[in-house]
């Protein structure tokens, strides 16, 4: 049974399961003892303005304990206004309620818990107050008709899979205080066309925008300082933009250091790509199956990785595997990384043979009799 608690480490109010011994604070991420958190709330409540919220009269459709909305039972109403005084919308509180079309969350609410609105297939609009701090895991999973959502700037946490499968969502401007785009946060949002990523976000985690097949534009905000430092996205995770088939261009900012496995795999409209010198490493199959890609320019000596597990990364872990139009490559380390550019390498083969070089990478041969390429170590086979 959920009751109100208060984190004794950061002071955040939250719904806690009284049957559990311990949990993790959704605000500061630190573990706490449930009994102690309940006690902390009870001790501070008489001096806290929030205690007044418990005195509200709630509609019988709302199951409320203290200021925690445990469950909503209004199975016929289309438009729902959550009453004043609620600080926490509990786990699965509205789960599967297909009758609901709009929800108004009042000011003072701080947490939308795990799965709170999951499976509300007809939910089209939701008002989120400025007071909200956290949207928990899969909170809006499968809200198929949700078209847009305005995030307050003070929102600090949007957890994994929060909007997975929201296929009608078209545009997203993320809150300025957000630092991480969590795992699968917008996966399979097939109607999403535009995303603005503010400068405080440092990581796009795995599968964040995977299968967003309508995504056309991703705009990154970054800030450069006079001392040479910069603020902006640092890491693009594994499969982050996999199969974003309408993404025709992407301006990777100079704050990025790492691009993960298969990060842009299947972005079949992508034509040109600039890899800034800030990027230290690109991991296996990062741009595989980008079938329209024609030109790639590396500004620095970025490392490319094959991957050590052939079962996980397939037999050919080329960075640009199945990019048949990629014939224009500018990269200072092209020879030792020839394997990463199959189409380019194949196109260069006649010229390499004509010039007496290795057909695979264009390197020079060593040895008097059994000649071996000095770069890729392949024997001369012509």
From TrEMBL:
InterPro entries per the UniProt record, alphabetical: LRR_5, LRR_dom_sf, Surface_bspA-like
Protein name in the entry: Leucine rich repeat-containing protein
Lineage: Bacteria, Bacillati, Bacillota, Clostridia, Eubacteriales
Source species of the chain: Ruminococcus flavefaciens
UniProt cross-references to Pfam families, sorted A to Z: LRR_5
Domain of life of the source: Bacteria
UniProt xrefs under Gene3D superfamilies: Ribonuclease Inhibitor (3.80.10.10)
């Amino acid at each position: 049974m959920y009751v109100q608690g208060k984190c004794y480490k950061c002071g955040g109010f939250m719904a806690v399961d009284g049957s559990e011994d311990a949990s993790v604070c959704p605000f500061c991420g630190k573990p706490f003892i449930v009994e102690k958190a309940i006690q902390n709330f009870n001790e501070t409540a008489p001096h806290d303005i929030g205690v007044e919220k418990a005195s509200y009269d709630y509609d019988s459709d709302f199951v409320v304990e203290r200021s925690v909305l445990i469950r909503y039972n209004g199975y016929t109403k289309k438009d729902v206004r959550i009453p004043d005084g609620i600080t926490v919308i509990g786990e699965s509180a509205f789960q599967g309620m297909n009758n609901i079309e709009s929800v108004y969350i009042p000011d003072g609410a701080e947490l939308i818990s795990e799965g709170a609105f999951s499976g509300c297939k007809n939910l089209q609009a939701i008002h989120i107050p400025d007071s909200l701090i956290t949207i928990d895991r899969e909170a809006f999973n499968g809200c198929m008709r949700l078209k847009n959502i305005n995030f307050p700037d003070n929102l600090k946490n949007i957890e994994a899979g929060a909007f997975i499968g929201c296929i009608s969502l078209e545009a997203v401007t993320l809150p300025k205080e957000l630092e991480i785009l969590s795992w699968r946060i917008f996966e399979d949002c097939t109607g999403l066309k535009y995303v603005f990523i503010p400068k405080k976000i440092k990581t796009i985690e795995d599968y964040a925008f995977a299968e967003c097949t309508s995504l056309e534009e991703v705009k990154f905000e970054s800030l450069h300082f006079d001392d040479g430092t910069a603020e902006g996205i640092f890491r693009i995770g594994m499969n982050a933009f996999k199969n974003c088939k309408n993404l025709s261009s992407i301006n990777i900012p100079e704050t990025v250091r790492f691009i993960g496995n298969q990060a842009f795999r299947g972005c079949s409209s992508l034509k040109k790509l600039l890899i800034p010198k800030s990027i230290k490493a690109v991991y296996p199959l990062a741009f595989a199956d980008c079938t329209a890609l024609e030109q790639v320019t590396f500004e620095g000596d970025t490392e490319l990785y094959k991957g050590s597990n052939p079962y996980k990364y397939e037999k050919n872990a080329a960075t640009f595997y199945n990019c048949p139009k990629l014939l224009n490559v500018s990269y200072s380390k092209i020879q030792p990384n020839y394997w990463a550019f199959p189409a380019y390498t194949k196109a260069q083969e006649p010229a390499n043979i004509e010039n007496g070089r290795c057909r695979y990478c264009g390197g020079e041969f060593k040895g008097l009799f059994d000649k071996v390429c000095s770069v890729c170590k392949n024997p001369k086979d012509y």
